[in-house]
Amino acid sequence: MGKTGSKLTDLTDAQLVEMAVGKDSQAAYFTLYARYHAGIFAHISRYISEREDIEDICIESFEKAFKQLDTYKPENKFSTWMITIARNTALDHKDKAKTRGKNVTTTSLEQSNNVANDVPDDCHNPIDNIIENQIHENFVNSIEGLPDLYRDIAKMCFIDNIGYKEIAHKTGLPINSIKTRIRRAKEMITRSIIDMEE
After folding, report:
1. Is 20 exposed, middle or buried (0-12, 13-18, 19+ CB in 10 A)?
2. 145-174 pLDDT, tens digit each
3. What is the DSSP letter of 74?
């Protein structure tokens, strides 16, 4: 289990889930989000082509997953579980849009029907390693690229896994200021990761 001081980015998915569920760790939730945003966004884009809709569905998928995170079984691959939720959310979105009579632009029918090939198998292959390393690198680079006001605090929270109280003690800042800066850092990191994916 991840303890305070161990690097969040080095933890397995199962350890991050355990932290998120057991300790309600916002940093653990955000690390899972940062780790899988690119893959989930790409998967949803197989069904939906409007970028704004893809991002909305992506966020909704993570919200659904995080609300039911305690149902995730560590023996299953987190990416497969997450992709299943994202696919169902995308298909629900298409169904609702059809019901409303909205003309939803989608990718080709052939791609949409090829659902089985969209789900990665549970074997870890070299491509997975390359993708995970790239996502990790983007995450770390996004933190490094933050303005001075946010960078050190974000590193302490998202990389070094230090709690708000300990960060406040180390920096001499009020805990509310720490929370505000971390919230703003999250927004900037998310925007930066999205920009890198474009």
Report:
1. buried
2. 999 999 999 888 887 778 888 999 999 999
3. T
